TrEMBL record:
Chain ranges of the Amino acid transporter transmembrane domain: 2-395
InterPro entries: AA_transpt_TM
Name of the protein: Amino acid transporter transmembrane domain-containing protein
Organism: Adiantum capillus-veneris
Localization annotation: Membrane
Origin organism lineage: Eukaryota, Viridiplantae, Streptophyta, Embryophyta, Tracheophyta
Swiss-Prot/TrEMBL keywords: Amino-acid transport, Membrane, Signal, Transmembrane, Transmembrane helix, Transport
Amino acid sequence: MVLFTFALVTYYMSLLLADCYRSPDPVTGKRDYTYMDAVKAHLGGLQIWLCGLVQYSNLIGTAIGYTITASISMVAIRRSDCFQKNGKQSPCHISNNPYMIFFGVVQIVLIPDFNKLWWLSIVAAIMSFSYSLIGMGLSVARAFEGGHSYGTAGGVAIGEVSEAQKVWLVFQALGDIAFAYSFSMILIEIQDTLKSPPPENKSMKKSTLLGVSTTTVFYMLSGCVGYAAFGNRAPGNILTGFGFYEPYWLVDLANACVVVHLVGAYQVFAQPVYAFVEHWVQERSSNSKLFHKDCSCRIPMYGIYRFNVFQLLWRTCFVIACTLVAMLLPFFNDIVGILGALGFWPLTVYFPVEMFIAQRRMRAWTRQWIALQSFSFICLVVSLAALVGSIEGVIQDLKVYKPFKTQY
């Protein structure tokens, strides 16, 4: 019910946001190239900077979250190999820090040529479908095995966890689900890449319907069959569940698909951050050769390697910083919950509602105005609950955590 509700909310708010790409008219108005530009055109004032702070903080946080997630999948492959060699009873504790560093190095290598890697998003989409289908198939197979609990309607019972812990975990789950529907933060940037005719908002609305419907079906199936497979002990990541020791190769393939998917997804979410900083710096240093000079060098077995000095330095520093933070805070579900809670209400609900009201010149205290504002307030309460639950989860993790020594 919660998944379906978030899907409906995200879809409806995305329809409003798609109409705000142009201003003042959604079809013939002036293009707004970024989310901040749209807020500037419709709302202005302090809300522009509030939007930028929330949006780019979430984009940075998403890059950190993807680094953590990719390393967990790589560690799962390494542990699978360890179990196969040493037996299922072997502890096989492996640090995820080297794998975070490896993921960061891959991102640095992709920096200069990302614009040429148009096929990467297609590969990422194929990988996403692949690991989802594998995860669901393995879950179905495990669900039909005998001798294990299928879980209960109420989930983990009071007694196994305290009443307070139960509430915190429910709130944290809300944040996880909110993060799963967090694409609104780059909806305007994606819409800016569409050609017209037909009008960009019509194309974006069709894409949103297809995207939300497809992901919701996969989320529903993964959640249901994953719970059928593991019951109340369902892990945060099905593919790293302790029940999946066999078939080794299939689990490894699924985790490899996750890693490849996140390599592309990381770049997509990082591009708006790169562009924002580079535009801001170039505007204030228009006469500096450092920020405009392009260089090239010949690399054996590669050819001519072209790069902009400032872009290469800044983007490399960004990747290094994200990797270091990921190594300091490798708490997958809690970090995802915080990101979802922080970004869902302002970027998915608040700004689309306020811009829609401003665009339509809707008078205060009319029925539609009251309905939209009430809806926004309810979503705010849900986001705050998710944020509190996720922060509580991080606090509990920090009590037993040693920096740079996390092992799985």
